[in-house]
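Support case: zinc ion complex. Customer-provided input:
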Amino acid sequence: MPELPEVETIRAQLAERIPGRTLTAVEVFDPKLVSPEEPEDVVARLVGRRIASVGRRGKYLLIGLDGDETLAVHLRMTGRLHWTPGAPTEEERFLRARFHLDDGSTMTFGDMRRFGRAWIVSGAPDEVEDYWRARVGVEPLSPRFTARVLEGLLDGRRGPIKAVLLNQALVAGLGNMYVDEALYQAGVHPLRAAGSLDPVELRRLHRAIRDRLAAAVEAGGASIDSYRDSLGEKGTMQDLLRVHLHAGEPCPRCRTTIVKTRVAQRGTYFCPRCQPAPPPW
Ligand SMILES: [Zn+2]
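Agent response - structure generated as follows:
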């Protein structure tokens, strides 16, 4: 499932290729992609528009259009946005939409599970910022995300730290994989009460979140299941994961066997020695 690093990889690639281009045709093959809007209405609003920018908030990809509108895209589980310089040469098996640009290039939206969504957000850039602020929390790679900000977000919360970090309204863009990796690096058990971390653990966790996300952006994201970047390539972060999907293997730090459990309904991986369990009371 694409998380912040995967969406950021796609954003950076598209930002080099599509701003300044005009959408000459848009085909929506799966009405669910743009529901509750009607596909023909969405198409009518997009065709003829010039792409001004490519941005990101959390896991949302934001294609800025002239006339103060934004096409927001959420890839969810298995969504892929594939850019090709001409018409795509390979058939997309799970085709949901196709965007044609005035230089002959094409963006193809494929999505096996069909949970992905696309919609238009109206408003000037500052109004759009308010729209996103109401939906997603602080960007963990931005200078605004400090250890003190993290402390404030966790303060008083009794839920497991893993569940709290998955809450997009608090920290934007973290998902199952990078939360596991960050908690491991910080030496924090996924079931610790979020508000129970001491100042040293908080600083370690803050650093670990930024470090793991930055490493993943550097690696072009992780291709575990279906993820490919917008050029159809795999990332390499899957080779750098230390605990996620490594149950039964030795911890890279202490050789204790990595364990898989469930937290917040998600498969959760950790080292029982490096990440000591919270006390039972
Ligand atoms: Zn260990």
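The first helix runs from residue 4 to 15.

Case will auto-close in a few days if no follow-up is received.
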